[in-house]
């Protein structure tokens, strides 16, 4: 009977992993895991494609949140704690045998940060490196103030999405796409604020030179590790520019490859 339970647990863990994380380019021989967290309203494909062009020593997976892609029929999450618990359940089988790092853009940075805290508090695990992009910390005074969404008009919701900075401006030019996208976007930003907390891993923050995000220096309060900040040309979605995207992927590779080989040997 125990063997049956173990087998069912393994099947359940595998299903959870495949449902929650998208790995388009599995690399069984990779010696480091890079877990990516997408921006508000986004799916997993953009970052999952990094696995094709990034070095062979790194395997890339990207978070797939409820309510999109293959999880389209699932209700959107409205509680960050529920989101993190689901991520951890699916993540533990992925990171149990190899070192790992997190990369998040915009709201994805917040989810990556929260997941890092949960891993440290509950499992004594941390990413080797936390890469965040276009987001300040939840304890910063620059953290976006989110009002009660059910009390806002459509125009006010649009203004909020622009202020929050996680929505491509092209969406606002197409009313049909905007109506379809708003539920996902609102579900993604309806998370609670978090008080300041401390990690031990190294952290790098990327931000666009014309980004609306302020006070990225606040990330220095969140970890005892080394903190680097890189300003790249562009707005909140600066990373969609090929030169910036390549810079980030090369930077991540240079940070992680030495660590991967030191742990491997």
From TrEMBL:
It is an enzyme of class 3 (hydrolase). Pfam families: Thioesterase. Keywords: Fatty acid biosynthesis, Fatty acid metabolism, Hydrolase, Lipid biosynthesis, Lipid metabolism. Contributes to the release of free fatty acids from fatty acid synthase (FASN). Has broad substrate specificity, giving rise to a range of free fatty acids with chain lengths between 10 and 16 carbon atoms (C10 - C16). Belongs to the thioesterase family. Interacts (via C-terminus) with FASN. It catalyses: hexadecanoyl-CoA + H2O = hexadecanoate + CoA + H(+); dodecanoyl-CoA + H2O = dodecanoate + CoA + H(+); tetradecanoyl-CoA + H2O = tetradecanoate + CoA + H(+); decanoyl-CoA + H2O = decanoate + CoA + H(+). One of its GO terms (molecular function) is fatty acyl-[ACP] hydrolase activity. Its EC number is 3.1.2.14. GO terms for biological process: medium-chain fatty acid biosynthetic process. Residues 33-254 form the Thioesterase domain. PANTHER family: S-ACYL FATTY ACID SYNTHASE THIOESTERASE, MEDIUM CHAIN, THIOESTERASE. This is S-acyl fatty acid synthase thioesterase, medium chain. Transmembrane segments: none annotated. The keyword Nucleotide-binding does not apply.
């Amino acid at each position: 009977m125990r063997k049956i339970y173990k087998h069912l647990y393994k099947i359940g863990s595998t299903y959870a992993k495949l449902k929650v994380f998208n790995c388009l380019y599995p690399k069984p021989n990779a010696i480091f895991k890079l877990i990516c967290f997408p921006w508000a309203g986004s799916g997993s494909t953009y970052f999952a494609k990094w696995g094709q062009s990034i070095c062979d020593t790194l395997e890339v997976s990207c978070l797939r949140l409820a309510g999109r892609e293959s999880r389209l029929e699932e209700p959107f999450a409205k509680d960050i704690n529920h989101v993190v618990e689901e991520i951890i359940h699916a993540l533990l089988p992925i990171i149990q045998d190899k070192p790992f790092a997190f990369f998040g853009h915009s709201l994805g940075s917040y989810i990556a940060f929260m997941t890092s805290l949960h891993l440290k508090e509950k499992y004594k695990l941390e990413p080797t490196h936390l890469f965040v992009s276009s987001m300040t910390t939840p304890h910063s005074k620059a953290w976006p103030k989110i009002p009660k969404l059910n009390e806002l008009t459509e125009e006010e919701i649009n203004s909020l999405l622009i202020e929050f900075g996680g929505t491509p401006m092209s969406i606002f030019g197409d009313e049909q796409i905007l109506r379809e996208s708003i539920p996902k976007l609102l579900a993604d930003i309806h998370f609670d604020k978090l008080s300041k907390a401390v990690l031990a891993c190294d952290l790098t923050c990327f931000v666009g030179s014309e980004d609306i995000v302020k006070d990225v220096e606040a990330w220095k309060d969140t970890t005892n590790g080394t903190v680097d900040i890189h300003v790249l040309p562009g707005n909140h979605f600066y990373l969609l520019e090929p030169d910036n995207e390549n810079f980030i992927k090369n930077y991540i590779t240079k940070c992680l490859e030495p660590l991967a080989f030191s742990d491997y040997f």
